[in-house]
C-alpha cells in the first residue's frame, strides 16, 4: 500500500499502524460488499484495534472510507508508475496503462473492485492515476502526439473508458483481457488523434511485466 515518510518514534509508528489497519479494513469492506453502513465497532474489530482508537484518526466513517478509496487509487497509480518507467511516448503510456489495468483484475482484484465501484467520482482527483494521466495527456498535446486540445476533457474520456474496461474484466473473466484492453486502448488513442495504423502498433508493443 502507499506509504509516506516513516514515523519518527515508537508512538508515531503505532499510531500510523493503527490508522493503516483501519484503512485496510475499510478497503476490504469496500471490495467485498461496498456496504459503508458497517458500524465503527465492526470496522475496529476487523482492523483488530480498540473502538476508541477510531476517533483518534477519523471524525466519521465517511472520512475513513474516503481515505480508503484514496489509498487504493494511490496504490493503483504507483503500481502503474513502477512499470512504465523509461517509457517516454505519451501514446504508449496510455496504452500500457490500459493493458496493465486489465491484468490487475487478476493480480489485484480488491483494488480493481474498488476502482470499478468508486473510481468515477475520482477521475479528476489529485491522487491516484488521474494526475499521472493528466500529465501524460498534457505532454502529448504539447508535443503534437495528440491532436485534442483540452487535457481535462480528454481525461474524462480516458478515465471513463478505463473504468468500463475494469467493469468488463470483472464481469466477464472469460474474455481475453489482453485483447479487450488493447482494443479499447487503440480506440482511445485514435480518439486522441493518433493515426489508426500507429495506434494499433503502439497497443501491441511488448508489455512490461506486472509481477
TrEMBL record:
InterPro entries xrefs: Homeodomain-like_sf, HTH-type_TetR-like_transc_reg, HTH_TetR, Tet_transcr_reg_TetR-rel_C_sf, TetR_C_40
Signal peptide span: none
Protein name in the entry: TetR/AcrR family transcriptional regulator
Keywords noted in UniProt: DNA-binding, Transcription, Transcription regulation
Highest taxon in the source lineage: Bacteria
Organism lineage: Bacteria, Bacillati, Actinomycetota, Actinomycetes, Kitasatosporales
DNA-binding annotation, residue ranges on this chain: 39-58
Record domain HTH tetR-type: where: 16-76
Organism: Streptomyces lutosisoli
Amino acid at each position: 500500500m502507499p506509504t509516506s515518510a516513516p514515523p519518527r518514534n515508537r508512538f508515531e509508528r503505532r499510531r500510523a499502524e493503527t490508522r493503516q489497519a483501519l484503512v485496510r479494513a475499510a478497503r476490504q469492506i469496500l471490495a467485498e460488499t461496498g456496504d459503508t453502513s458497517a458500524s465503527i465497532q465492526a470496522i475496529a474489530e476487523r482492523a483488530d484495534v480498540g473502538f476508541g482508537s477510531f476517533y483518534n484518526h477519523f471524525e466519521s466513517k465517511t472520512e475513513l472510507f474516503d481515505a480508503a478509496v484514496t489509498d487504493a487509487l494511490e496504490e493503483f497509480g504507483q503500481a502503474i508508475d513502477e512499470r512504465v518507467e523509461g517509457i517516454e511516448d505519451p501514446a504508449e503510456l496510455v496504452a500500457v496503462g490500459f493493458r496493465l489495468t486489465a491484468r490487475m483484475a487478476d493480480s489485484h482484484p480488491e483494488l480493481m473492485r474498488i476502482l470499478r465501484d468508486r473510481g468515477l467520482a475520482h477521475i479528476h482527483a489529485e491522487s491516484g492515476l488521474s494526475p499521472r494521466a493528466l500529465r501524460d495527456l498534457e505532454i502529448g498535446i504539447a508535443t503534437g502526439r495528440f491532436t485534442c486540445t483540452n487535457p481535462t476533457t480528454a481525461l474524462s474520456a480516458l478515465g471513463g473508458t478505463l473504468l468500463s474496461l475494469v467493469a468488463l474484466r470483472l464481469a466477464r473473466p472469460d474474455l481475453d483481457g489482453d485483447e479487450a484492453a488493447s482494443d479499447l486502448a487503440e480506440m482511445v488513442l485514435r480518439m486522441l488523434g493518433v493515426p489508426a495504423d500507429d495506434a494499433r502498433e503502439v497497443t501491441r508493443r511488448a508489455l512490461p511485466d506486472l509481477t
